[in-house]
Write a structure and sequence with these properties.
The chain contains eight helices and two strands; from the N terminus they run ββαααααααα. With 185 residues, the chain is mainly α. A two-stranded antiparallel sheet has the order 1-2. β1 and β2 form a beta hairpin. α3 runs parallel beside α5, α5 packs parallel to α7 and α6 packs parallel to α8. This is DOP1 N-terminal domain-containing protein. InterPro entries: DOP1, DOP1_N.
Length: 185
């Protein structure tokens, strides 16, 4: 972070400043952002009471509802914990309904962040998604591939820091030439 609380975003030929983040001047004293943060924290605290798959779905529904209510902010409060919880919701032992809900939340987050925000936090959001592809059910893979296609591929050169992991994540889709997802991958 630079001294004026803006994030640096690499441009094609210059670096420009953008007022994002919880410490940016735009969010520092915004009571709506504080309320947003409190709502996300409340939702994250409810994860402690998750014991079975129905609880996971309820948690994800509430998290998505909270995030949708504050679309005007191009930042996700407590993003490290949010990313961790979403990753936990992609555990292969959980049913596909939980995975689908988690991917819905990921999709919303990436729409909110946009290309710049995703590029800035690429490792954070990718750490749960990339390992999941190998274990994803057939019914969920199209959603995951669509997410990669819509949000990751447009990053082009910005995807370079995670390119090796991205390629390794997609390799299981190339195992069988006659497989359902071979052409899409």
């Amino acid at each position: 972070m630079s001294s004026n609380n803006t994030s640096d975003v690499e441009g094609s030929d210059s670096t420009k400043k953008v007022p994002w983040g919880p410490n940016s001047p735009a969010y520092a004293n915004d009571p709506k952002y504080k309320k947003y943060t409190q709502q996300v924290e409340k939702c994250l605290n409810s994860f402690d009471n998750v014991h079975e798959w129905a609880d996971f779905i309820s948690f994800l529904k509430q998290l998505l509802k909270t995030l949708e209510a504050y679309k005007q902010f191009k930042e996700i409060p407590r993003k490290l914990i949010v990313a961790k919880r979403l990753s936990q919701c992609l555990n292969p032992a959980l049913p596909t309904g939980v995975h689908q809900r988690a991917l819905d939340v990921y999709t919303h987050i990436m729409e909110v962040l946009g290309s710049e925000g995703l590029q800035r936090d690429l490792a954070l959001w990718s750490s749960g998604l990339f390992p999941f592809f190998e274990y994803a059910a057939t019914s969920v893979k199209p959603t995951l591939l669509g997410l990669f296609d819509t949000h990751y591929l447009p990053l082009q050169g910005g995807l370079r820091p995670a390119m090796k992991a991205f390629i390794l994540a997609l390799l299981p889709g190339l195992e069988e030439e006659t497989g359902e997802f071979f052409d899409k991958v």
